[in-house]
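User: Hey, my collaborator sent me this sequence without any context and asked if I could get a structure. I don't really work with proteins. Can you help?
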Amino acid sequence: MSATLLTARAPQAPLRRLLALDAVVTGGNGLAYALFAGPLGRLLGVERTPLLVLGVLLAGYGAAVGLLASRARPAPGLVMAVIEINCAWVALSLLSLLLWFEPTTAGLVWIPAQAVVVAGFAVLQWAARGSRAQ
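Assistant: No problem. I've predicted the 3D structure and written it out in structure-token form, which is a compact way to encode the shape of the chain:
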């Protein structure tokens, strides 16, 4: 019986690990933005208030993704929501360079770099979700 449970849950492990890593990275990033909005804003060329708001939102989102990762069987609809939100984050990050922010050189490096990391999470989560369905 325990072998059956292990076999049934094993396909969930990669997805859950990816969600957990996403939660840690996103939550940590959010906490840094929220706690150090002033200095990071100056470094990146982003105003303090938007960075503070983003930090609080990211910390909360990271906690929600962590909760999802803690489930033995993450709900497929919520997993898709995480993937879609990650994709939206990538698009908005890149658009922010053109439309809203006037970043410093550090910001011109950091904003696309973190977007690439988030895009990587989305792709890997999509692949792990897809392999689970088979």
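In plain terms: The mean pLDDT is 90. You can pass these tokens on to your collaborator as they are.
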